[in-house]
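Morning!

This is the sequence you dropped in the shared folder:
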Amino acid sequence: MAGQSSATTARTGGNPFLRAVAAVSTVAGWISAGMIVAAVAITCQMIFIRFVLNGSTVWQTEAVVYLVIAATLLGLPYVQRLRGHVNVDLIPLTLGPGARRALALFVLVLSIVITGVMFWYGFEFWHFAWERNWKSDTVWGVRLWIPYLSLPVGFGLLLLQFVADLVALATRVDTPFGLET
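The structure's back. Tokens below.
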């Protein structure tokens, strides 16, 4: 655990903005993990009701689907913070330090633009469901703005993490692609 906190300090460089974003991303990761645990527990409860008690389930399948989708979206900033996404570094390894830095800046700016578009349309979709009071066409009848909220929140937090990564790279707190120069 001590190694993790010193690694976090090293990647934030003591910058208050980077530390705050790292904390928010970590909280999002914990919430995401909790959603996965809840989905597993609900699945176990559903199996017990169906096969042991021979009863019917009304809300469990839908809840598990919404929880797993929300966990995926809310977990994005934490995975980005830890650099846990699939990374192919063949091109950065072949480039010199200046070109590697330029490529990293380009990739981060492009990621910010794409995530910003996803955030915008996710917010628009969520707001549309909120305004029209959409409900699922199931017996449970979930108000869809609740699970759809994970779209703007998840992409918004990922956008914030990408901005923090750009700041860390621009201030030389972090190295391009996490590679030594």
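Headline: Residues 1-6 have pLDDT under 50 and may be disordered.

More detail when I'm at my desk.
O.
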